[in-house]
Design brief:
Largest sheet: none
Number of helices: 9
CATH class of one domain: Mainly Alpha
Strand content: under 5%
Order of helices and strands: HHHHHHHHH
Distance between the termini: 144 Å
Length: about 200
């Protein structure tokens, strides 16, 4: 009987320590669903006071901060999760959210990298794939090909001349000489008359 009592005492404190942080997260989630993001933030912060390394509380706090337009604070938390959580399911979600945050801030190059990292961590993430495509298209619209690149493309499309400019100039002079000769013959024939009989 004494052994059973000792086991219960050892188990209960672990449950009591874990319960407040889970209750805070759960309460924060309720506030988040009700779009009361400041109250959700408070609950997630309480959970982190009880357990500073709680990745779920950090992730949810970052989301609540994003909703309150506290993007730099949210970015800091998401970066921590991306660096410290190598083999957890939270990391791809944190990387994805960081990509969304960067897209909202019009930092397209960084958001593209975040979406690519998300897909490396979770190749089946359809949202990351779609957002990556959208960010790439937006970046392409923002930075159209430069004028030099357009000229190069146009030059590639236009057929190149088969003769050099010097050769073309020489041929043009020859044609002009032949035309003069033909004109002179025509003028000679018109002065002397035609030797061909007319067909009446």
């Amino acid at each position: 009987m004494k052994h059973l009592l000792a086991i219960l005492l050892l188990t209960n404190p672990v449950l009591l320590i874990a319960q407040p942080e889970n209750n805070n997260i759960q309460q924060g989630n309720n506030f988040y669903r009700q779009q009361q993001y400041d109250k959700a933030q408070s609950e997630y912060e309480k959970a982190l006071q009880n357990s500073p390394n709680n990745k779920i509380a950090k992730f949810n706090l970052a989301n609540a901060l994003i909703k309150q337009d506290k993007k730099s604070e949210a970015d800091k938390l998401l970066s921590e999760l991306n660096v410290n959580e190598n083999k957890t399911a939270i990391r791809p979600r944190a990387t994805y959210n960081q990509g969304v945050l960067l897209t909202q801030q019009k930092k397209l190059e960084e958001s593209i990298e975040a979406y690519k990292e998300t897909l490396r961590l979770d190749p089946n993430d359809r949202d990351a794939r779609e957002n990556l495509q959208k960010a790439l298209l937006e970046l392409k619209k923002k930075n159209p090909p430069k004028k030099q690149e357009k000229k190069k493309e146009e030059q590639k499309q236009q057929p190149k001349p088969k003769i050099s400019p010097k050769e073309a100039e020489q041929q043009l002079k020859l044609l002009e000489q032949k035309e003069k000769q033909v004109q002179e013959r025509i003028q000679k024939n018109s002065r002397t008359g035609s030797s061909l009989p007319k067909d009446w």
